[in-house]
Amino acid sequence: MKFQSQFGSERTGIQLAPMIDIVFLLLIFFIVLWNYARFETEIDISVPAATSGETPKRTIGEIVVNVHKDGKIVIEGVSKSEPELLKMFNDIVAAYPDQALILRGDRAASFDHIVKVLNVCKQANIWNISFATAPPEGDKNLPK
């Protein structure tokens, strides 16, 4: 007597097409995120060190403003003048009133350049501003 059914005797294999689709989607996702993270911070800016600094909880959509030592303002790899910066900030604040901003000023930059960016933030009604600092050279307890 044969108890095995005629239709269920074939073994099915692993479906590779959906797995390949998921792998490619993950690859695209991480490449896009890496591209945005690459423009977030300028490598040639050295922020000043602070002993009392702490690593804040990052928020989604925060703006990172880089101020070079010569006064050049760079956001996401694009140089901006003060009027362009004001227009950009006004557009962002119109959509997101509690917009977070991280100001990364070079330690050799004149304080006038930092104040110019702060004035533009005040004109655009951006109040949630953080200053980027680095841990001191000898302190191993603070995160880098």
CATH class: Alpha Beta
**Per DSSP, what share of the residues sits in E-state strands of 2 or more residues?**
5-15%
CATH topology title: Nucleotidyltransferase, domain 5
Across the major sheet, the strand order is: 3-2-1-4-5
Number of helices in the DSSP assignment:
3
Into which percent range does the helicity of residues fall? 25-40%
Helix and strand content put the structural class at alpha/beta
Distance between the termini: 73 Å
Shape: elongated
Q: What CATH architecture would you give? A: 2-Layer Sandwich
The radius of gyration computed from the alpha-carbon positions, rounded to a whole number of angstroms, is: 25 Å
Written as H for each helix and E for each strand, in order along the chain, the element string is HEEEHEHE
Number of strands: 5
Mean pLDDT value? 79
Residue stretches low in confidence (pLDDT < 50, at least 5 long) are none
Q: Sheet with the most strands?
A: 5 strands, mixed
Quickly count the domains.
Answer: 1
Name its key features.
144 residues; alpha/beta; Nucleotidyltransferase, domain 5; 5 strands
Structure explained in plain terms:
The chain has 144 residues and is of the alpha/beta class. It has one domain (15-51, 58-135): Nucleotidyltransferase, domain 5 (2-Layer Sandwich). 35% of the residues lie in helices and 15% in strands. It has helices spanning 16-38, 82-95, 111-123; strands spanning 63-67, 73-75, 78-80, 100-105, 128-131. A five-stranded mixed sheet has the order 3-2-1-4-5. Helix 3 links the parallel strand 4 (100-105) and strand 5. Helix 2 packs parallel to helix 3. It is elongated, with a radius of gyration of 25 Å. It starts with 15 loop residues before the first helix and ends in a 13-residue tail after the last strand. The mean pLDDT is 79.
